[in-house]
């Protein structure tokens, strides 16, 4: 099995394995493309219950052995609600050391003879993708995705759109660009990514090559914490340098949160206010403050140069 989803999906994963492979079936191993919270959420529970080995790249080991946390998210990029909320997403490590094994250096994948793993850093230092050459099936992980992961609406509708890795959690855009070019060169027939629906045949290849050729416009944000200066990692995958945050967006998020909170509190007071005019006035003031909160974010949310100056609200 490749990756384990969110922590809340353990039961769903077990039910699906039983449905597809039969009751009592378990995978021979779990292969991790990387250790972000939305890919390793159920890992501890499933690895323990199934008693199977977990494999990852050696530069991903610190994040699955409790040793290191990923660099902070960048909520200023992407122009959508998923990005805005990214500062709340878990980035600390988990510890599955008792089950964890390093992927073989020769590119082979244990228990999957026809597959090979490819180091595709950028989104994380030890990110990998998986490829089966005989039929051209590519499991890309988050090296690139097929939905605009920064947008709640796009995530909900799962509209197919080949994008770079999720912007809010990508600390090295140079490596990410090189990884996309390497995957495009494989000429895959089937593309499955960590976010979004699978894509097939000529459509998949065409869109992937388009992203690879124009990555600096289509695949990455125009501005952001890691755009001009990437995070640096040592040979073990641990961050040795993390660029300082761009203060403008963080200040605007704080102002917006304060405005929204005050507006919400004032709006709630209408139930305790007598008189139609007073109630209407209180409601208008509260609504105006909440609208101002969204406007504060929407007027300044940075998007990629492929989506220039889009406000945050339409991108939700």
Written overview of the protein:
By secondary structure, the protein is an alpha/beta fold. It folds into two domains: 7-241, Metallo-beta-lactamase, Chain A (4-Layer Sandwich), CATH 3.60.15.10; 247-315. Helices cover 35% and strands 12% of the residues. It contains eleven helices and eleven strands. The strands form three sheets. It has a six-stranded mixed beta sheet, covered by helices on one side. It has a three-stranded parallel beta sheet with strand order 1-2-3, with no helix packed on it. A hairpin with a 2-residue loop joins strand 4 and strand 5. Helix 6 (173-184) packs antiparallel against helix 7 (201-213) and helix 9 runs antiparallel to helix 10. The radius of gyration is 22 Å and the shape is globular. The model is unreliable at 298-316 (pLDDT under 50).
